[in-house]
Amino acid sequence: MADGFEDEVEPTISIGEYLEGVEEQELEADLVLGGDEGKECTYNKGYLKRQAIFSCLTCTPDGNAGVCTACSLSCHDGHEIAELWTKRNFRCDCGNSKFGEAYCKLFPNKDVENLENSYNHNFKGLYCTCNRPYPDPDAEEQVEMIQCCICEDWFHEEHLGLEPSDEIPRDEEGEPLYEDLICQACSNICFFLTLYPQTIRVTVRQPHVANSAKDKEVIENAPSSFASSEKQHGDCSADTSTGDSTSGAVSVGKGILIGQIKANTAVVLERSQTAGPSKTCIIGTNLLEAAPKPEKSKAMLFCKNWREVLCRCENCLEFYSQKRISFLLDREDSIAEYEKIGKQKRDEKLQQQQGQELSFLSKLGHVEKMEILSGIADMKNEIHSFLESFDASKPITADDVHQVFENLAKKRRRMP
User: Fold this and answer.
1) 185-229 pLDDT tens trace
2) Residue 133 pLDDT > 80, yes or no?
C-alpha cells in the first residue's frame, strides 16, 4: 500500500504553461466582464444592454435581485455570490428595497425597485430544467452548460430535449460549431425561425463531417447576406434535410418557397437597414396571424451572424415587439459582440499601460533611465539563463525563484 502512494506523482506544469493559463484566465474574465474594471456601480447608466450580473444569496436568498461587478466586490465581499455571467436590459439592484436595511456603498440613492429587471431561478444559484446549482456538489464531473439567447437560462446538453443519438457539432478542438442556442421552451416563441432556410441552423444529429461538399452546396445556395458572412467565418455544418423535422413548424396554408426567401432576403435586409421597415416580408408570412402547430418543441442551434438574416418588415417588427424579442435585431445584444467589445477594451487598457510606462521613463533623467533599463535587461537575461538550464517539464519551486533573484543581486553587487 505504501509503495502505491509513493508512485503517485502530483500533476505539474511548466512555467510557459502556467503563464499561458494565467493569460487565458485574464482574457476570459475580461470577456465576461465586458471590460468593466469593477470600480463604479453601473446603476447610474440605467438598464444596460448587457452586463455581468451577480446574485448575493446571503442578502437575497429568494433570488429576486442582482448586482453589478463593482457592488459584488465592494458591497458583498465575503458573501455567498452566484455568478450569472451576463444579463440583458438589467439595472443594478444593490441597496434597494430588496436588501432590507443594507445600502449600496457606491451609489446609495437608488429607486426602491427596478421594474424592468427580470429574474429567473439563476438568481437562486440554480440552472437548467434539472434546477441544479453550478458547480453541482453532487456531480462527479462538472459538465459545461449552454445559455439560451432568449431566456438566458443555462442548460446541460442532455437536458435540451434532443434525441439520445443527437450530438452537438464541434470542431477538432472541441469548440462548438454554433453561435446561439434557443432552448426547447423558447423555441415555441421563435417558431417563425423554422420558415427560414435551414442554412441558418446547425445540425444536431449523428456525428457529421464539417466542410463537406454537401455543406458547401448548402452555403452557396443560402440567402446572399448569410452566405457572404459564412465565407468570412467558415461553414457551420448546416442541416440539408428538406423534411420538416425541426419543431415549431407553422401552419400558414400554402407552403413557403425557399427560392422566394433567397431572392428577397438581401434586398429587404438592405432596405430595412437604410430606409426603415419594408412592407415586403422575407418569409412571405404574416407572423401576427400565424400560429405554431401544437407539436413538441425542440431546441435549435444557429450559425454565426444568423440574426442578420431576420426579416425587418412592418409585420415582423411588430411581432418581435409583442413577443419581447426585438433584441434579436440589435447587434450589440449578442454574446459574440459583447465579447468583441470586451476584448477591444482589454487591448486599449494594455496599450494605455504601455503608454504610461513609456511616459514614466521619458520623465526620468538619462542616468536614472539607463539604470532602470539596465536592471530590466539584467533580469530578463537572468530569467532567460535560468529557463535555458531548467527542465521545462519540472515545476518551479520557491527556492528556484529565490535563487534567480539571489544570482541577480550578486551580479549587481559586482558591478562598479
Assistant:
1) 999 999 999 999 988 998 775 554 444 444 444 434 444 444 443
2) yes
Axis crossing angle, helix 366-389 with helix 335-362, rounded to the nearest 10 = 120
Look at residues 251, 236, 410, 229 and name the one whose alpha carbon lies nearest to residue 308: 229
Confidence of residue 145 (pLDDT cuts 50, 70, 90): very high
Please state the rounded mean pLDDT for residues 78-97.
96
The three state secondary structure string of the chain is: CHHHHHHCCCCCCCHHHHHHHHHHHHHHHHHHHCCCCCCCCHHHHCCEEEEEEEEECCCCCCCCCCECHHHHHHCCCCCCEEEEEEEEEECCCCCCHHHCCCCCCCCCCCCCCCCCCCCCHHHHCCECCCCECCCCCCCCCCCCCEEECCCCCEECHHHCCCCCCCECCECCCCCECCCEEECCCCCCCCHHHHHCCHHHEECCECCCCCCCHHHHHHHHCCCHHHHHHHHHHCCCCECCCCCCCCCCCEECCCCCCHHHHHHHHHHHHHHHHHHCCECCCCCCCCCCCCEECCCCCCCEEECCCHHHHCCCEHHHHHHHHHCCCHHHHCHHHCHHHHHHHHHHHHHHHHHHHHHHHHHHHHCCCHHHHHHHHHHHHHHHHHHHHHHHHCCCCCCCCHHHHHHHHHHHHHHHHHCC
Span of 77-81, 116-120, 204-208, 239-243 with lowest mean pLDDT: 239-243
DSSP β-ladder status, 291-292 and 250-251: antiparallel
pLDDT in tens, 222-255: 444 444 434 333 344 434 333 343 333 343 433 3
Rounded distance between C-alpha atoms, residue 204 and residue 254, angstroms = 28
Paired residues of 181 in beta bridges:
148, 301
Contact 302, 335 (CB under 8 A): no
Whether residue 408 is predicted with pLDDT greater than 50 in this model: the reply is yes
| Number of Cβ atoms within 10 Å of the Cβ of 190 | 20
pLDDT computed for residue 405 by the predictor: 78
Which residue in 284, 235, 287 sits closest to 259, CA to CA? 284
**CA-to-CA dists, residue 351 to 23, 168, 346, 363, angstroms:** 16, 39, 9, 19
